[in-house]
Amino acid sequence: MNWYEKLSEYFPIEEMKSKEHMDALLKDKHNVYRKDEGPKHVLMYVETESFVFVDYLFVSSASRGEGLGKKLLTQLKEKGKPILLEVEPVNYEDTDTEKRLRFYARENFHHASRIGYSRRSLATGEQTDLEILFWSPEDADEESVYDAMKMTYEEIHTYKDDEFYGESYDPIEKVLTYSTEGKTNILKPFASVGA
């Protein structure tokens, strides 16, 4: 099974980029869009001068409990830049969402509670609400996380969208919002776990 098939099996269709889109990012934006692949994992990420964005992190279920996810995140942390990622809120019918949030809480990620993020999938037409998590070596503020997410959306997520999907993603102001009021911290129930 190739790296794209592994990602497609694990991530819901509404969160997946097309193979053509990801191949184009790896080719055209190879200076920032990267793939780290092994027999038990696939990590797709963006690295700029000021931050790292984890686009997809897949660890094979056969290797769960071996610390592979932690090792991959540690390698990213060693770059000394804030790390951002998108995550689904807890869905109690999908136990993976809770495991994922517990994992990121253990890895000292924070919930960007002032950032609203709702993206329409061009594959399904569904609106998907996601939350932004971030880790920072020097306590990045949510405004800088918001700016990094805007850049990621405009430069990576919507790259050549017309060409790959036959239509454009929604404009950024419809997708990302920044509020002075924070939402409930989705990591709080997991904060004491493993602390």
UniProtKB/TrEMBL annotation:
Annotated ranges, domain N-acetyltransferase: 1-152
SUPFAM superfamilies: Acyl-CoA N-acyltransferases (Nat) (SSF55729)
Superkingdom as given in the UniProt entry: Bacteria
InterPro entries associated with the record: Acyl_CoA_acyltransferase, GNAT_dom
Descriptive protein name: GNAT family N-acetyltransferase
